[in-house]
Specification:
The complex is a heterodimer of chains A (871) and B (77). Chain A is of the alpha+beta class and 871 residues long. In chain A, the strands form 7 sheets. In chain A, strands 2-3-1-4-5-7 form a 6-stranded mixed sheet, sandwiched between helices. In chain A, strand 11 and strand 12 form a beta hairpin. In chain A, helix 23 crosses helix 29. The radius of gyration of chain A is 34 Å and the shape is elongated. About 5% of the residues of chain A have low confidence. The longest helix of chain B is centred in the middle third of the chain and has 9 residues. Chain B has 77 residues and is α+β, with helices and mostly antiparallel strands. In chain B, strands 1-6-2-3-4-5 form a 6-stranded antiparallel sheet. In chain B, 17% of the residues lie in helices and 42% in strands. Chain B contains 2 helices and 6 strands; from the N terminus they run E-E-H-E-E-E-H-E. Chain B has one domain: SH3 type barrels, CATH 2.30.30.90. The chains are: A alpha+beta (871), B alpha+beta (77). Chains A and B meet through helix 3, helix 11, helix 18 and strand 21 of A and helix 1, strand 3 and strand 5 of B.
Chain lengths: 871, 77
């Protein structure tokens, strides 16, 4: 099979072309450096199938970053049958600079003048016949996006690949031609392949070449000594680059006829003027970032609810006189009649009126409606339900649960009665529904009326659907043995659904980031933020892999190849997991939701947003620490192309999104499914392989293993202090190492069992399972936050660890990286828990941090002095 | 009049005279088309004053002031 390589500048449309040729769905973006590894696919319309290799974008064949080395080595060592050099026709001069180098290799070359649609839109024309004549290789006009000219391109490439081609150089017409010719003859004599290419690179003093041809160097130096240039002296690198560009300006650039004037304002410029504005640039970036998260997670879109847009005047009537009572005259806990004549209770949060909640009611044996519930001693019981009023329970002041209650006259009632006072043999939860229909009981703080964000709407829709599915399943398996229905409903469905319900939000977040990336805005963000990043010892380029980390750490880590400096790369790879990836999203939202629902504090999307920020802050601090200790080095240069803005391609976006969904679902049904089943098994069997009822789970293998590790997590707030069910948190964190989705999946599997009897045989959504865990363990808010922080900053999933190992420059730094993750997560989480629980511990931490900083600063000073002395 | 690129004001135009700087930086500047004779227009500064954005050979390039200081320019009037 023939092999054609696609080579060209970054962001010239190689990957779009690759996808169009091979029908593949590789990720395309609008910033330089999206493709960092080579990819292969097959083109089938030639006389024989052709393997197409998509190489990372490069500006030159003098390798500057690891991705450029990949491309160069492929072209030189793997000897493709033809190189299709893709040239961005809107940016001819710089793109042809690479072409002049590719042409020096002894390989057939075909030029694809890509993005011709853009050129024509601007009213410009290119004389491709003239360019073909001057370059002496086939030139084909294409538009990868519009899929035009592709068949012609492949036909010409196929024809070209059948006959060998000898390298030619534009330098042959420059002053350097004799020097290069001499070196070429010498190399040819040694039997070196591609003598012209190597000769030019040797003359340029290319570092890889001088390593490779050590023995030839003295001779070349001799040749060079005879050469003198008035402008550049003996700076051969400058001489060669200059000669190439001079030739391009003289012979190649004129093939383009421009309608437009140079430096005039294009649409792209106008957009740019706003988005990178001196004053508004950074605020706009922050607003965009906030909007992305807000649209995905907010339960109160644009804060319309909080702003009171949906507030209606509250009307209530006295139960005695029937007179209308104004809102400001309500008293907490008082009973009024609403407009329909139903009894409602005024619910207050502190001194503030929240809502008029329907008064929970049931019927006693005589069919009398009762609204107050008492225990045998006559103490009033509290009624609890969730937002939707789906669950109902009776608790006394100590939190004990009651299944029977007494009415005001001390008459015993059971919930298993319907309106007619007949006994109904139905499941506990549904009994309540049958009796106390339309009960929505006050949750602790009561949500005001609001509009959900698209993300939350999708989330709720899927959550309702999966809830229905598992309810059906549990019905269907009612006659099956307990362990079988437990395995299916709690183990498999519980685990799967608690993860799958987050898919809409993950995809939405992904969509927003793809939009920003495709439009070209991400590159501008690097431009805006470079100054800040430099403070931390990184370049603005490091921003790209980091922001990709919000999607998934794996491509993000691979993308660090665009960074030239090894130490910068290592530091960046280490902090990428702190940019909370989409798989960690369920941890954030579920626990944040749980905190809001159970403790009634805060706001779920604000907690989520704050946790994302925490990740970023930890990443920044860690980078500063590394760059001033183990990863010291010069701030790497920042010289980057800013691509033209363009509208994102709908098709490519959808393909990309579909891919992501496929990947996520595949993961859910393979690794996550497998781990939830394993977890269910080891949590329902004891060490001697006895099946355990849900209530006996504390005797399980899992409980035993988790219990062993539990003390380690005590300073983090989710260790021994949580009592008998505390091991669930430990186990969840450990299973997160397999895949981060597992953390909440583990809750989903175990919580349903732990709180058996209450919601038995119903798979719980993520938030509900967290609420169950809070109820079961009595974990505090600081400990929950610490738990999120721990999972966010600790060792990422297996796949990301493997990627880090492959991308890090050496083994030692890999081991140090693992240690770094463990240490960071432990320190961050324990700080959050300790300071959150006992504020004065902040002083101890401050003191320790001050000592560490002082030590580092002093050490660096002494080190610098020592170095200065040595020099 | 000769000046380094980092001292350019917004919308100044000039011709590259000389490119200095250390190995890698100089190499990168060449590869991106900043060679003697190239025309450069200063477009804007980032919100925090650094890096800068220029137009060279028909496209937008961003680089830091430190790197721009390696480029000596002949200012066009």
């Amino acid at each position: 099979m023939k092999r054609f390589a696609l080579a060209g500048n970054p962001n010239c449309g190689k990957t779009t072309l690759f996808n169009a040729l091979t029908g593949s769905t590789a990720h395309v973006g609008n910033w330089p450096g999206v493709t960092v590894d080579k990819k292969t696919g097959t083109y089938k319309k030639c006389p024989e199938p052709v393997e197409i290799v998509d190489l990372p974008g490069i500006y030159s064949l003098s390798p500057y970053t690891p991705e450029e080395v990949i491309a160069r080595n492929y072209i030189l060592d793997e000897k493709p049958d033809c190189i299709i050099n893709i040239v961005d026709a809107t940016n001819l001069e710089r793109n042809l600079y690479l072409t002049t180098q590719v042409m020096e290799i002894d390989v057939p070359v075909v030029i694809a003048l890509n993005m011709m649609d853009e050129v024509e839109k601007l009213g410009n024309t290119i004389d491709e016949k003239l360019l073909e004549e001057r370059l002496n290789v086939p030139v084909v006009k294409t538009s990868a996006l519009k899929e035009s000219g592709l068949d012609d391109l492949m036909k010409r490439a196929y024809a070209a690949s059948t006959k060998p081609r000898e390298g030619t150089s534009v330098l042959e017409s420059s002053a350097l031609s004799h020097l290069i010719g001499d070196v070429k003859i010498a190399l040819k004599g040694q039997g070196v392949a591609n003598p012209l290419f190597h000769a030019v690179k040797l003359v340029e003093n290319d570092s890889i070449e001088t390593e490779m041809h050590k023995e030839t160097l003295p001779m070349i130096e001799e040749f060079k000594a005879t050469f003198e240039d008035d402008v550049f002296g003996d700076d051969f690198e400058a001489l060669v680059a200059d000669a190439r560009y001079k030739y391009i300006s003289k012979y190649f650039a004129p093939v383009m006829t421009k309608k437009q004037e140079k430096f005039s304002m294009t649409k792209s410029d106008k957009i740019d003027r706003v988005l990178t504005h001196k004053v508004w640039g950074i605020p706009i970036f922050l607003v965009i970032l906030f909007l992305v998260f807000h649209l995905t997670f907010s339960e109160d879109l644009l804060y319309l609810g909080a702003a009171g847009v949906f507030d209606k005047p509250v009307v209530a009537y006295s139960t005695v006189t029937g007179e209308e009572i104004a809102e400001e005259d309500f008293t907490s806990g008082a009973i009024y009649l609403d407009e329909d004549g139903n009894e409602v209770e005024a619910v207050f949060y502190g001194d503030e009126f929240v809502e008029l909640a329907p008064v929970p009611y049931a019927y006693d044996k005589e069919g009398n409606k009762i609204t107050a519930f008492y225990d045998a001693e006559g103490n009033e019981l509290t009624v609890l339900a969730d937002d939707e009023g789906e669950l109902l329970d009776l608790y006394d002041a100590e939190g004990n649960k009651y299944e029977t209650f007494y009415n005001a006259d001390g008459y015993e009632c059971t919930l298993a009665l319907n309106e007619e006072g007949e006994f109904e043999d139905v499941e506990f939860v549904s009994e309540i529904d049958a009796f106390c229909s339309e009960i929505t009981v006050n949750t602790f703080f009561g949500y005001e009326e609001s509009v959900y964000s698209p993300g939350v709407i999708l989330f709720n829709a899927l959550d309702t659907f999966t809830g229905l599915l598992s309810a059906c399943m549990s019905e269907a398996m009612a006659s099956a043995p307990a362990w079988a229905s437990g395995l299916v409903v709690d183990g498999i469905l519980g685990g799967l659904f608690s993860v799958l319900s987050f898919l809409p939000q993950i995809l939405l977040l992904f969509l927003f980031f793809s939009l920003l990336e495709d439009s070209g805005y991400m590159a501008r963000v690097a431009f805006i933020l470079d100054r800040i990043f430099r403070r931390f010892g990184l370049s603005g380029r490091a921003f790209m892999p980091m922001i990709m980390g919000f999607g998934c750490s794996i491509p993000a880590m691979t993308n660090t190849r665009t960074l030239a400096d090894d130490k910068e790369r290592t530091a960046t790879i280490r902090v990428i997991p702190f940019f909370s990836c989409s798989a960690k999203l369920p941890i954030l939202t579920a626990i944040a939701g749980g905190i809001v629902q159970f403790f009634g504090v805060g706001n779920a999307d604000l907690i989520t947003y704050a946790m994302y920020l925490l990740g970023i802050v930890v990443a920044i601090l860690a980078v500063i620490l590394m760059r001033s200790t183990t990863m010291k080095g010069e701030v790497p240069p920042f010289i980057m192309e800013l691509p033209t803005y363009h509208l994102p391609q709908f098709k490519a976006l959808m393909i990309h999104l579909f891919d992501k969904a496929k990947h996520f679902i595949k993961k859910a049904f393979t690794i996550i499914l497998a781990s939830t089943i394993v977890i269910w098994f080891i949590s329902h069997f004891s060490w001697n392989w006895h099946y355990l009822e849900d209530s006996e789970m504390n005797l399980s293998i899992l409980a035993g293993l988790g219990g062993l590790l539990q003390p380690i997590f005590t300073p983090l707030g989710f260790g021994s202090q949580l009592g008998e069910y505390g091991w669930v948190f430990v186990v969840a964190a450990v299973t997160g190492l397999i895949a981060k989705e597992n953390v909440i999946a583990t809750f989903g599997t175990l919580a349903a069992c732990i709180t058996a009897g209450f919601a038995a045989n119903e798979a719980l959504g993520g938030v509900d399972s967290v609420v169950q865990m809070i109820t079961a363990t009595g974990i505090t808010v600081p400990a929950l936050i610490a738990f999120i922080a721990f999972n966010m900053t600790t060792i990422p999933c297996f796949a990301a660890v493997a990627t880090a190992k492959a991308e890090l420059p050496n083994k030692k730094s890999f081991k140090m990286t693992l240690l770094f993750w463990v240490a960071t997560s432990y320190i961050v989480a324990s700080m959050i828990y300790l300071i959150g629980s006992w504020w004065w511990t902040a002083f101890i931490f401050a003191a320790v941090i001050a000592v560490v900083i002082a030590f580092i600063v002093l050490y660096n000073k002494r080190d610098a002095k020592g170095k200065a002395k040595a020099a | 009049m000769e000046r380094t690129l980092d001292s350019f004001e917004i919308s100044d135009v000039g011709i590259v005279k000389k490119v200095g700087g250390e190995g890698q930086i100089k190499r990168r500047l060449f590869d991106m088309g900043i060679t003697p004779g190239a025309e450069i227009k200063m477009r804007k500064r980032a919100p925090l004053g650094d890096p800068i954005e220029i137009t060279v050979r028909g496209y937008e390039l961003t680089l830091r002031k430190a790197e721009a200081a390696c480029v000596t320019m002949e200012v066009k009037g």
